[in-house]
């Protein structure tokens, strides 16, 4: 899955109408609605606030997709915005395009180009990342072995996320779900097979 790299906005002007697109990364529909409400409050004088959102669950593959024309002719604003998000394969994102009418009607085709273009400009400005589902694994080893294992992990294909010192040293490693079998082999090779990985559940990482 792909996500936006950061929240942001971009503004375009067409035939004296201003189109300001705000995009934000969100975890659920409730968070998306909060963003929409915030944009509406920030621009009460806008003629329209048209929206599109896509929110995915990497665990189940479920996807929620919604759009709104907010008073523009049906299919000229929210739907083309949603099509932009779909073509780019983006999830966990809400987009709001606020329009200030400039006095010139754009026609259906012009509105489609204006709203999709405003969103495209905003997405180009904020950039994109990959959302990759990992498993978070905990490795507990004695202090006498921790330094070597930490060194090996830092020079491996796997991501060492944290090191906690206590009675033992606990190393937290994020391993892509597709690589868990290979990691088990790697761990056995580098520890003699006497260190077990405790799987604490899924963890999403956002990668270039």
From TrEMBL:
Disordered: where is this region? 53-78
Please report the stretch or stretches of sequence annotated as the UPF0029 domain. 139-193
* InterPro entries according to UniProt: EFG_III/V, Impact, Impact_N, Impact_N_sf, Ribosomal_Su5_D2-typ_SF, UPF0029_Impact_C, UPF0029_Impact_CS
SUPFAM superfamilies given for it?
Answer: EF-G C-terminal domain-like (SSF54980), Ribosomal protein S5 domain 2-like (SSF54211)
The cross-references to Pfam families, in alphabetical order and at most eight, read:
DUF1949 (PF09186), Impact_N (PF01205)
Domain called Impact N-terminal: residue spans: 16-123
Family per similarity comment: Belongs to the IMPACT family.
Q: What is the name of the protein in this document?
A: YigZ family protein
Q: Which organism is it from?
A: Pseudonocardia alni subsp. carboxydivorans
């Amino acid at each position: 899955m792909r996500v936006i790299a950061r929240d942001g906005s971009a503004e375009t002007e067409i035939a004296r109408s201003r189109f300001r697109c705000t995009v934000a990364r969100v975890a659920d529909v409730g968070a998306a609605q909060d963003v929409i409400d915030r944009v509406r409050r920030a621009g009460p004088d806008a003629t329209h606030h048209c929206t599109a959102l896509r929110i995915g669950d990497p665990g189940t593959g479920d996807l929620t997709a919604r759009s709104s024309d907010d008073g523009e002719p049906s299919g000229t604003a929210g739907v083309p915005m949603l099509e932009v998000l779909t073509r780019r394969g983006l999830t966990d994102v809400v987009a709001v395009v606020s329009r200030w009418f400039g006095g010139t009607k754009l026609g259906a085709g012009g509105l489609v180009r204006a709203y999709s273009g405003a969103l495209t400009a905003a997405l180009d400005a904020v950039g994109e990342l990959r959302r990759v589902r990992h498993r978070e694994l905990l490795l507990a080893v004695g202090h006498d072995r921790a330094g070597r294992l930490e060194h090996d992990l830092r020079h491996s294909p796997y991501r060492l996320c944290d090191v906690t010192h206590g009675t033992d040293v606990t190393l937290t490693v994020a391993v892509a779900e597709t690589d868990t079998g290979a990691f088990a082999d790697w761990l056995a090779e580098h520890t003699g097979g006497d260190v077990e990985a405790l799987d604490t559940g899924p963890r999403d990482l956002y990668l270039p």
